[in-house]
Amino acid sequence: MKITTRQIALTIIFSAIYAVLRVIPTVPMVGVAGASFSLSDILAPVYGIILGPYIGGLSVIIGTFTAMSAKPPVFLGLDFLPGFVNAVALGFLVRRKLLPVIALNGILLLAFIFNPLTLVFVNVPIGATNIAFPFMWLHIAAFIVLLSPLGLKAGQWIGTMKSRKAVAGFAILAFIGTMMQHLMGNILYENIFVYVTQIMTPDTLALRWNVVFYLYPWERLALIILAVVVGVPLFRVLQKTFISHRNAETASQNQTVPK
């Protein structure tokens, strides 16, 4: 890879923005006293779509570690992984590299399902009976969307100047990336808090999963909406800026070419 001055500048700027939002809490994290999700979670899909897998992923890593001076880590220093997975996956997906994203999503989904700490089914009361409902139903839905033609078409729609297609493309990609981020976070959550720090036992974790089951779809929906609200106008501004800069460079080169 050829690293340019512009790429370095983008990494520094967006790492700083990520670090600032990282210390701003949103909703509390179930089962961990004093821990909460960060406002920076809305930036991970935006970074992947706009900056690409390398600059986007690096910005998430640098921003996360920078914020640790003000906000202690929750996952023993591995806090960057969920956002990193989101940004890298969408960065590749926008650039039509589908297979690595499918492989990563499939591995995370299987790792979560087959972990003995995972609550695979939740008993949902409907009327007088309880129905066993898959805990990761929304993750499966996101994986199906990734496998469908929408997985690639969403990236194409973002590049158009049509508002509805750009919003739809951003929403689809943010849905896929945010659910992958949640999978990575869940895997860290159950393994670190049960096996490493022993904050919870498998029984108490199962109770936490029953609560999370009803909360996480709304939490993820809010993140997706905010990512679209922030990402679409930001993408258009940067797109116009890069096009203007590229045109200026081309005009300058044409002027310096000897006749």
Helix count equals 8
Mean pLDDT: 88
Task: Quote the beta fraction.
Answer: 5-15%
Quaternary arrangement of the chains shown? Answer: single chain
- Secondary structural class: mainly alpha
Looking across the biggest beta sheet, what order are the strands in?
Answer: 1-2
The global form is globular
- Residues in helices, as a percent range: over 70%
What's the total count of β strands?
A: 4
Note down, in words, how this protein is organized:
This protein has 8 helices and 4 strands. It has 259 residues and is mainly α. The chain has one domain. α7 packs across α8 (202-256). The radius of gyration is 20 Å and the shape is globular. It starts with a helix and ends with a helix.
Please give a handful of descriptors for the protein shown.
259 residues, single chain
The gist of it:
The chain is mainly α. The protein is about 70% helix and about 5% strand. It has one domain.
What is the topology?
Layout: H1 5-22, E1 25-28, E2 36-38, H2 43-67, H3 80-94, H4 98-113, E3 121-126, E4 129-134, H5 137-147, H6 150-158, H7 163-196, H8 202-256
Antiparallel strand pairs: 1-2, 3-4
